[in-house]
Structure to design on (263 residues):
């Protein structure tokens, strides 16, 4: 099931099995005598790292990892591969590569990574131990609160709360619910650096271990640009304006109706 290809110490292809040829879309006759670079993007070939890659192999240093290669049609092929020097009589006489095609799983992983990067830019994320100790936070959360990561790691969640609330029964119950596995989503009043008031639309989620027990709490949030009171007031004003508009339309409709009847 593995794709296997072997080279001389200069990187020239000496042979390959059917699995390798099938994965890259070539026939054996098309690749024997060609250099390994035919499977690499031109810009990669020109980099010093690629030259070092082959120098290391020729000196007897094996290379392992995930590699992006290019098929005959120009499409990406991702492989999990091991390049191993072949040593005879104390000298390197060739290189054999044994690889597995991981293209589907790698592309899926890259897609998920891109989604996470997008979320990273737009969603504030912070992680806590079960006792509320801060483990880490992303740049969006730090930007919203004005802290650096070094200033908050190891501190308690309560640094973002009003002291009176942090000492209250409600706050204690809040963490009891999270430790019990409950997800809590709401609009929260919090405080950033310098006691600057901020409002967050946030969800606190227990993060479960492989044993099925909650090990951490992850909070995802978006910052609201006005307070909850401001949002409520604006909503109330919009509702009142809508009611006035509806009343005016009803009056106009009635006037038109009366005029039609008199006509």
């Amino acid at each position: 099931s593995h794709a296997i290809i072997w080279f001389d110490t200069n990187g020239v292809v000496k042979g390959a099995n059917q699995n390798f040829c099938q994965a890259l879309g070539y026939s054996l006759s098309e690749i024997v005598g060609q250099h390994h670079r035919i499977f690499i993007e031109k810009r990669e070939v020109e980099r010093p790292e690629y030259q070092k890659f082959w120098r290391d192999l020729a000196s007897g240093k094996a290379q392992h990892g995930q590699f992006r290669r290019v098929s005959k049609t120009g499409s990406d092929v991702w492989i999990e591969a091991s390049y191993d020097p072949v040593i005879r009589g104390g000298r390197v006489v060739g290189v054999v590569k044994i690889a597995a095609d991981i293209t589907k799983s790698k592309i899926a992983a890259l897609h998920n990574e891109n989604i996470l990067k997008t979320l990273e830019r737009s969603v504030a994320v912070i992680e806590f131990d079960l006792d509320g100790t801060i483990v880490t936070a992303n740049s969006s959360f730090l930007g919203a609160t004005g802290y650096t990561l070094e200033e908050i790691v190891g501190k308690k969640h309560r640094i973002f709360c009003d002291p009176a609330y942090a000492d209250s029964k409600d706050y204690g119950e809040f963490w009891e619910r999270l430790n019990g596995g409950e997800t809590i989503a709401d609009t929260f009043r919090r405080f950033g650096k310098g006691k600057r008031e901020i409002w967050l639309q946030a969800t606190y989620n227990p993060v479960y271990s492989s044993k099925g027990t909650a090990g951490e709490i992850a909070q995802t949030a978006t910052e609201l640009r006005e307070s909850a009171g401001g949002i409520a007031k604006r909503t109330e004003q919009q509702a009142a304006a809508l009611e006035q508009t509806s009343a005016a339309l009803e009056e106009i409709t009635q006037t038109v109706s009366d005029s039609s009847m008199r006509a």
